[in-house]
Amino acid sequence: MKNFRVDLRKVVDDSYDIEVGYELMESFLKDISEGLVGKIHKFAIVTDSKVKDLYAEPIYEALVKAGYQADMFVFPEGEKSKTREVKAELEDQMLEKGYRRDCAVLAVGGGVVTDLAGFLAGTFGRGVPCINYATTLLAAADASVGGKTAVDTPLATNLIGLFKQPKKVYIDIATWSTLPKREIISGLAETIKHACLADREFFDYLDAHMEDILSLEREACEHISEANCRIKYEVVMKDELESGLREVLNLGHTVGRAIETVSDYQLLHGEAVSIGMVAEVMLAEKLGLLSSEDKEAVIRLLDKAGLPTAIPAYIDREALVRKLYTDKKVRDGRLRFVLQDGIGSVKEFEPGVFAAPIEEKLARKIIMAMPVGEYK
Ligand code: GLY
């Protein structure tokens, strides 16, 4: 018998730019003409039914006018479309239209679109380049940056997916003007999360400028976009694959993701994260990590943004406790939470360990102690 070694050590450079600005379609066209995706001339534009007419269609038309081959692959808007089934339908449509390995995927939309399209790009033909054109505050704040892609399953959100870094991210703030107020507010939860985990000054900025942000005042939108990108990419650059530090980006998400599923997606992602942040600060206070002033300040800021800070009456809290175990941070069957030890700071429990095991009894106690909200 002989042994052979397949030596596949490699140096990978997945670096990419994030461009933040207003009306970035021209910039995108210029980038591809200058080789952003090499010689690729074929673009699968993945988008949802809401974004299609508003932003995907103009990009599609501009691509065709510029001599590229492009097609739109559209799925019904909403988190309920972020499934393996919808991904398979889109893949079949692409195959039927002759798409093979010689294409790039352009995701135009919010977090559901960038998560689904990125996952699709990562597996289509064993992987084709992907570009994100983010049209929501939520995608701008979180989903479009960092390379996490996934679909939801009936059990829970984001359990199946892969890391697939985009070739470039365009954060087009002009698109936010067509977002329903509820979506703007939902996007702010990830923004507040970033401030809570990394930047007290940004937290104070959000507190002082919430009205400007909610009325989409230009300077405020640029400021929050830049701060979100900076906080997120600084974490991702240090721990792309979430072996330690990146877990801090899960602040508020243990309860957040669980309540999003238990609400059957009646709660938008950001709304669920907001409720999760309240549970997290209550837990951090209980464990003596966070002062009651800081806990109150976090809840006040979420409230000021118009986000829910209580558990809707229709939520079955026991089901919520059970759902906590579907969290990706669970290890050896134990719940683990990322916790703040101040505003702008998360607790490092051991070197490189940012999530602590929490007894179910304590998690249940916090969830049962949370107020009941009238929120949808
Ligand atoms: N949304 C959390 C992360 O990107 O790690």
Number of H- or I-type helical stretches: 13
What order do the SSEs take from the amino end to the carboxyl end, as H and E? EHEHEHEHEHEEEHHHHHHEHEEEEHE
Radius of gyration: 21 Å
Low-confidence stretches: none
Write the layout of secondary structure elements.
Elements: E1 17-21, H1 25-33, E2 42-48, H2 51-65, E3 69-75, H3 84-96, E4 104-109, H4 111-123, E5 130-134, H5 137-143, E6 148-151, E7 160-163, E8 168-172, H6 181-198, H7 200-214, H8 218-238, H9 253-262, H10 269-286, H11 292-304, E9 311-312, H12 317-323, E10 335-337, E11 340-342, E12 345-346, E13 356-358, H13 360-369, E14 372-373
Parallel strand pairs: 1-8, 2-3, 2-4, 4-5, 5-8, 9-14
Antiparallel strand pairs: 6-7, 10-13, 11-12
Helix pairs in contact: 3-4, 4-5, 5-6, 5-8, 6-7, 6-8, 6-10, 7-8, 9-10, 9-12, 10-11, 12-13
The chain binds glycine.
Residues 142, 146, 148, 246, 249 line the site of glycine.
Describe what you observe in this structure.
The protein has helices spanning 25-33, 51-65, 84-96, 111-123, 137-143, 181-198, 200-214, 218-238, 253-262, 269-286, 292-304, 317-323, 360-369; strands at residues 17-21, 42-48, 69-75, 104-109, 130-134, 148-151, 160-163, 168-172, 311-312, 335-337, 340-342, 345-346, 356-358, 372-373. By secondary structure, it is an alpha/beta fold. The longest helix is centred in the middle third of the chain and has 21 residues, at 218-238. The termini are far apart. The structure holds glycine (GLY). Glycine binds next to loops.
